[in-house]
Design goal:
Two copies of one chain form a homodimer. Chain A is an alpha/beta fold and about 350 residues long. Chain A is about 30% helix and about 25% strand. In chain A, the strands form four sheets. In chain A, strands 6-9-7-8-10 form a five-stranded mixed β-barrel. Chain A has a four-stranded mixed sheet with strand order 12-14-16-17, with helices on one face.
Chain lengths: ~350, ~350
């Protein structure tokens, strides 16, 4: 059976005040389409696995939000992390739990907060990946076909075709500088690592056992294959090594593959990418929420709670409002938002 | 006895969203000093008349706000207009009512929403004016000594000294064009009409009887000198001619005087004048409320309800927030705020 594991533990504050540690980005209708990012993620996998095979790993403080936003998910499939330990322990926990229910599980692991506009193409690729890993001891990672020399993402270097659209991965590449990113783009076989992995439960568990044995040891106590846990999740989970699944497993595994995916993906990691995704008016403003604009251009505006917002004479600004917090800043300065959101100015 | 009549019926929307027709400017702590404009007006007359001699004329929908903000005022001294008829009927009603309680009353009439920073000098001038009108059938109007060739105010042309600092008024002058305003400023005997008048109750009533007989006729029915009113305020007041006290009486009365007043007056009629009155930071920003500014200059910011506001990279903007409504606009465009506040943008 197919299963989908949604990693939803992020606390991103780059979208403050829209996103806060109490209510992070994945739980927000950031595109103004009526569905939050995690809901869009669930929607994207409709038809790939039944409702009862969804899993969400998130911080314990977001469990109620998950229940509220994804009422179809079994409560026992919401894995509540008592502490953030990066993605390897998160994936491991899901894998160990899925094995308890389905020893033949075939698993997609995905972040909760990416956006994919071409869902049909995405589903075809996921189905091809699941078909491949159903029989093979391999990891298939989605390789997003780049459209620009992006320096903000890691890359997957692909080589020969193994089968259909499945390519062998030559290497994972760290975030490049601009020159290298340009070379990657023109070479054509470098893809963005979107953090979407497909593998069967045996490959998952064996990989973690081999390449992240400390985490596997914790999982064996926390989620034993038969018998009862020796200690609680609260005691055990925080003892896991804090490491990403990429570093812990992907970069070491000998059989990682990729399917190049041209699916209009965006990680929506910042206001810039939100502006790109939003429908723009004739003055290149992208707005979510009720706003009256006069002589504004190149702005990205997201309002949630305000009853009325009037903006005049702004060019190239971010305007964001939620829950009595307001931000107005130049789009060029968005990397400072995180600092402003927490800082008490002197 | 001295009485103070505060005219507080304005519904100005030039400070939207700070000021709204439901809660206009005079009831707002626009300076961020802890007192609303009408409270500052009451404070200004402390020592000039006792609490029980204050009167407020306002629209009926603001009565509860007045009670709340000026708990010392007798409830029967809040005159609730069922309709806005400009200032002449408002002053007349107060005059007729005061005569019922005090036939020898000496009265100051003042707007509720001006700001006077030099209260000590102001009180001295008011006392001199009251001393003059206690014995004379005259109207003394405060003439604000101008500091710029302002085209937004009416002027009072003063001439010879009658007594002390009391000058005869030669004429009232309409809002001038810039050239005329410059001539007024250099001439030295043209003063701003601040709408603050001092007269005794006999002069007040006789003046209205002579120069605004329609209004006097309504008042004789509404507030008879002995006996009971023939009809209700709701029926009678709206039948008054809609006219300002300046047009109706001041410009026609033969014995209007003025005392030049250098009292750091401001009508706070717009964001520009608020910016002038506020303490500025090193970048010429004037802020009321909790705001974090980064690389901002020449801004005027007023926040009321927001928990946190971060502004970056704004030069010469108005930022105002209240009750879930937000405005960001260039200071040069503030004359359009009124239109934006009511308009539903297509």
């Amino acid at each position: 059976m197919n299963h989908v594991v949604i990693m939803a533990g992020g606390i991103g504050s780059r979208f403050w005040p829209l996103s806060t540690p109490e209510f992070p980005k994945q739980f927000i209708d950031i595109l103004g389409c009526g569905r939050t990012l995690i809901q869009l993620t669930v929607d994207r996998f409709k038809g790939i696995c039944p409702d009862e095979n969804f899993w969400v790993v998130t911080n314990e403080k977001y469990v109620d939000i998950v229940k509220d936003q994804i009422p179809t998910i079994p409560e026992s499939h919401i894995l509540a992390e008592p502490a953030a330990r990066n993605t390897a322990p998160c994936v491991a926990w899901a894998g160990w739990r899925i094995r308890q229910e389905d020893e033949c599980a075939n698993i997609v692991v995905t972040p909760a907060d990416a956006v994919i506009m071409n869902v049909e193409a995405f589903r075809a690729i996921i189905n091809e990946a699941l078909g491949y890993t159903a029989a093979a001891d391999a990891i298939v990672t989605l390789g997003i076909v780049p459209n620009r020399p992006e320096t903000g993402y890691g890359y997957v270097e692909s080589e020969a075709v193994l089968c259909g659209n499945v390519h062998k991965v030559a290497a994972f590449r760290e975030k490049p500088n601009l020159e290298t990113a340009k070379q990657y783009l023109s070479a054509g076989n470098y893809l963005w690592n979107a953090g979407i992995f497909v593998w069967n439960v045996g490959t998952l568990i064996n990989s973690i056992r081999q390449y992240a044995p400390q985490i596997a040891g914790v999982m064996d106590m926390m989620v034993p294959d038969g018998g009862v846990p020796s200690k609680s999740v609260e005691e055990l989970f925080p003892t896991c090594e804090k490491i990403s699944i990429d570093y812990a497993v992907m970069e070491k595994h000998p059989n990682v593959c990729t399917i190049p995916a041209d699916v209009q993906w965006s990680d929506l990691g910042n206001w810039q990418s939100l502006h790109e995704k939003l429908e723009k008016d004739s003055q290149n403003n992208g707005c979510v929420g009720r706003v009256d604009l006069y002589e504004c251009q190149n702005c990205v505006v997201h309002t949630e709670d305000a009853k009325k917002v009037v903006l005049q004479g702004l060019d190239g600004y971010i305007v964001s409002e939620k829950n009595g917090q307001i931000l107005v800043c130049k789009r060029s300065e968005e990397q400072r938002i995180k600092e402003w959101s927490s800082g008490e100015k002197a």
